[in-house]
Design goal:
0% strand, single chain, mainly alpha
Length: 136
C-alpha cells in the first residue's frame, strides 16, 4: 500500500507546511502568554502579602497611637514623672533596702534583718511589707 501523499500537489504540501509552522507559532505564543500570566499572578500574590503585612503594621500603629493618646496613659505618665496625685489617693513610698542598710531609717539591729531581704523578689517584698509583723 502506497501513500497517496506522493500524488498531492506541491501547493498542497506547501500549505500543510505553512499550517504546521502556524500551529507551532500559535503554541509558542500561547506558552509565552501563560508564562507571563503566571509571573503576573506571582507578583500580585507577593503584593497582596506585602499589603497584608503593611495593613497589620498600620493596625498596630493605630492601636499604639490610641493608647498613647488616651487619658489613662497621660495620667499614668503624669503620676510617674510629675508626681500627680488625684484627690482621695495617697502615695506610699517604700525606701529601698540600701537606704535601710545604711541605718538612715532604722537602728543597728534592723540592718541585719533587712540586709537579708535584699535578695527577695518584688512580690515577696510586698508580702513582707504588708504581712510580716515581726519587722514592725
Amino acid at each position: 500500500m502506497r501513500f497517496k501523499f506522493q500524488h498531492t500537489s506541491n501547493f498542497t504540501k506547501m500549505v500543510i507546511i505553512i499550517e504546521f509552522f502556524l500551529v507551532s507559532y500559535l503554541l509558542y505564543t500561547l506558552t509565552v502568554s501563560v508564562y507571563k500570566s503566571y509571573q503576573i499572578d506571582q507578583h500580585i500574590q507577593s503584593f497582596e502579602e506585602e499589603n497584608a503585612k503593611i495593613e497589620e503594621e498600620n493596625r498596630q500603629k493605630s492601636e499604639e497611637f490610641d493608647y498613647y493618646s488616651s487619658d489613662a496613659y497621660i495620667e499614668k505618665m503624669a503620676k510617674q514623672n510629675l508626681g500627680l496625685v488625684n484627690p482621695g489617693e495617697e502615695v506610699i513610698i517604700i525606701p529601698s533596702e540600701n537606704v535601710k542598710a545604711t541605718g538612715i531609717v532604722g537602728g543597728a539591729d534592723q540592718t541585719d534583718t533587712q540586709n537579708s531581704g535584699s535578695d527577695l523578689s518584688n512580690p515577696m517584698k510586698w508580702w513582707k511589707f504588708f504581712f510580716d509583723l515581726s519587722s514592725r
